[in-house]
Amino acid sequence: MAPRSLQQVSDEGAPGFLKFFTFFFPIIGIILYFVWMDTKPRAAKELGKWVIISIVSAAIVVVVIILSCGGLLAWLGSHNS
């Protein structure tokens, strides 16, 4: 690996298809973030954001499903007796 001053640093953003895959498979974004951190900082930062968006979205979906199931079970319990 060349010293940082000799490496070419790209200012291009991440391609759209990688953002898409990062949203559904955050591990791809995490790996590419660390691989591109020094050589493609803008693309790495964009993918890092998509990883965070993906994880937060998944957490929200899980909470909504848990609350929905709990509400459904409570409703069924009250109508069953």
Structure summary:
The chain is built from 3 helices and no strands.
Description:
- The structure is a single chain.
- With 81 residues, the chain is mostly helical.
- The chain has one domain.
- Helices cover 74% and strands 0% of the residues.
- It is built from three helices and no strands.
- Helix 1 runs parallel beside helix 3.
- The model has no long low-confidence stretch (mean pLDDT 88).
The proportion of strand residues reads under 5%
Helical amount: over 70%
First-residue to last-residue Cα separation: 70 Å
Enumerate the spans where pLDDT stays under 50 for 5 or more consecutive residues: none
Helical element count? 3
Largest sheet: none
Q: Over the alpha carbons, how many angstroms does the gyration radius reach? A: 20 Å
Mean pLDDT: 88
The succession of helices and strands, N to C, reads HHH
Structural shape: rod-shaped
Provide the structure class. mainly alpha
Please tally the β strands and state the result.
0
Structurally, the number of domains stands at: 1
